[in-house]
Design goal:
Elements: H1 3-11, H2 18-27, H3 30-44, E1 49-53, E2 55-59, H4 87-99, E3 104-108, H5 117-130, E4 134-137, H6 140-150, H7 154-164, H8 179-185, H9 191-203, E5 208-214, H10 220-237, E6 240-247, H11 255-258, H12 265-278, E7 284-285, H13 289-292, H14 294-300, E8 307-310, H15 329-338, E9 342-346
Parallel strand pairs: 1-8, 1-9, 2-3, 3-4, 5-6, 6-7
Helix pairs in contact: 1-3, 3-12, 5-7, 6-7, 6-9, 9-10
This protein binds iron/sulfur cluster (SF4).
Length: about 350
């Protein structure tokens, strides 16, 4: 089939076969991807709104028992540079976030070998008791590590955390959901384990996001397989609220010695559009201005994205690997307006907000 015929098939809302996707991905010019992705974004979000969130990444600990070749954040247990934040430090960070109009925190850490489940429960319940704030915490590798460490099922761990105040789960640690790629790049969890955490979370009513980090030396087939695993799980659970692709940031990482170059802006935009089209069952697509810069972020709003992500008051994981872009709330709002959209602040679960949350008295 020609690219024009494949584009028509997509425009009619028909699913392509795996072979047809591969052909489309390999051969379609950017414009042939951009146009249908933009049309699908318009169909799914006819109100022309582009959302964003004001939050910060609180990384409660950088101590990690896993080894990921793309990570410049972690320190091995026993390292003098390892840390665990005190509850007081975390409370201060939350208070600063609320003062800046933030609605939530994204809390993630390394896979700590010693912190008990009660530490996480206490932290969540104390945050909920003190503040009116959305808790978007613990990506699948952390949840999977908890199951191993505490000898509990995924469901039992998630129920305990949910009861303590967990509102939603970030889609980190997905990278490329193909074990042949994961075996070369990470020891944290395999494809099935990542998906099992997400499926269980969705079953328990915890919304999650999903991500893809590409540029790890994977093939185009691997990327399509990644999208397909997410698509199939979403058909089953409908629990992914958003998909966020970004590219490997290689600075100060082991993999960066082999793959020092970043993927181009054009390649990023192509895959943003392909993700919008492939994941037509996921409501929101976020463009990663943090890794691509705000100019590409703005272009992404015409390639299928309807969300500009977070202003990232604090970010400690991707920044050490070379993502040095910064944005304020005003910059994200103006960027949306300049591209012809209406900016709207949201929560981490993509529920739109009218105003800032208030600080509760502790
Ligand atoms: S990406 Fe996460 S799991 Fe991997 S080494 Fe870094 S902190 Fe640990």
């Amino acid at each position: 089939m020609s690219i024009v015929e494949l584009s028509r098939k997509i425009a009619r809302g028909e699913r392509l076969t795996r072979q047809e996707w591969l052909q489309f991905v390999e051969e379609a010019p950017l414009e042939a991807i951009r146009q249908p992705a933009d049309a699908l974004r318009q169909r799914l979000h006819p109100d022309n709104i582009v959302t964003y969130v004001v939050d910060r990444n609180i990384n409660y600990s950088n101590i990690c028992t896993a080894v990921c070749t793309f990570c410049a954040f972690y320190r091995k247990p026993g390292s003098p540079e390892g840390y665990v934040l005190s509850f007081e430090d975390i409370f201060k960070k939350v208070e600063e976030t609320i003062e800046l109009g933030g609605s939530g925190v994204l809390m993630q850490g390394g896979l700590h070998p010693d912190l008990p489940l009660e530490w996480y429960e206490e932290l969540l319940s104390e945050l909920k008791r003190r503040y009116s704030i959305h808790l978007h915490c613990f990506s699948p590798p952390e949840i999977y590590a908890f199951t191993r460490l505490f000898g509990m099922s995924t469901e039992a761990v998630l129920r305990r955390l949910q009861k303590a105040g967990l509102d939603s789960i970030p889609g980190g640690g997905g990278e490329i959901l193909v074990d042949e790629v994961r075996k070369r790049t990470t020891t944290k969890c395999n494809t099935e384990q990542w998906l099992e955490v997400m499926e269980t979370a969705h079953r328990l009513g915890l919304p999650t996001t999903a991500t893809m980090m590409f540029g790890l030396g994977e093939t185009v087939e691997n990327r399509v397989e990644h999208l397909d695993r997410l698509y199939r799980l979403q058909q089953k659970t409908n629990g992914f609220v958003a998909f966020i692709p970004w590219t490997l940031q290689p600075d100060n990482t082991k993999i960066g010695r082999k793959i020092p170059d970043r993927r181009s802006a054009e390649e990023y935009l192509r895959w943003l559009g392909i993700a919008r089209l492939y994941l037509d069952n996921v409501p929101n697509i976020q463009v990663s201005w943090l890794t691509q810069g705000i100019d590409v972020g703005r272009q992404g709003l015409h390639c299928g994205a309807n969300d500009l992500g977070s202003i990232m008051i604090e970010e400690n994981v991707i920044s050490p690997a070379g993502a040095h872009h910064r944005a304020t709330e005003e910059l994200l709002r103006n960027s949306s307006r300049l591209e012809g959209f209406i900016p709207c602040k949201r929560k981490a679960n993509y529920v739109r907000l009218e105003g800032a949350v208030s600080l509760r008295v502790s």
